[in-house]
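Would you kindly consider the sequence and fold I have copied below?
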Amino acid sequence: MVTENIKKVVANKDIFNIRSYLVANILGDKSLTGNFKDCFEYCVKNGIPESEIYEPHNGVEISNDITEENYKKLRSGLNSNFSRERVEALKKIAIKLYPPKIDSNNNQGGSNNNTSNNYQRCGNSARHVRTDKDGNKLIYAIVAGVAVLIGIVLFAG
């Protein structure tokens, strides 16, 4: 889901923040096939050429090891050098570590990121909100749990 924040930075042609949002999207879209892909495509379709999104590669050697550690290293490297080479290497590793899953609701392929119904935007980040089969938010369970914990702490002292 393309957020208002990404739309604003694209409209302003703010390349630094576009890259920042794309990197942040990877945290919730480890396979780079869901929200990351949607936002990247939105940028390109709305006047930001790939050649501006990507930086020239800084020459740091890129490992193709299919490990969680290497995935994290490549992902964090995007903060300082958002290069095509680094993103492509990350995609190749991600498809092995986080292959797209079959969505049981509609039997179509999906990535292992959650749909927009399961995330709530909070400023520049997202927090997970569980929903039941009817789409009702179950956040009340979290609130109730926190209230009980606060009650225990207050009355135990």
